[in-house]
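Sequence in, structure out. Go.
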Amino acid sequence: MGYPHRMPPAMPQSVLTLAAYGAAALAEIAGCFAFWAVLRHGRSALWLLPGLASLALFAWLLTRVEAEAAGRAYAAYGGVYIAASLLWLWAAEGQRPDRWDLAGGAVALAGAALILAGPRAS
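Output:
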């Protein structure tokens, strides 16, 4: 007698949205950094190939966000992008965000949360 197989509980939509936004931010920042590396640091133009692929992945990931309007999905994403950029600043560029960076990131995330979770008129 085997144990009954249960399906794992479905992930809440908010978790999927945050995952899509987080992955999109990483893809966008990596893609933009490839251009930065070529144009500002003299890296090989071959850096543009993964950069372009990363930017295409970013665009696709934003379409995975459950939102009734693209503009609202993009606006909320802006806060996540700001916070992710500060993490990139620290992790990839070795510059620790200062208190003003952190305060600005917190304000941006609060704004994103308002946009995503705010009550909507029917």
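Check: The chain has one domain: 13-117. The CA atoms of residues 29 and 85 lie 7 Å apart.
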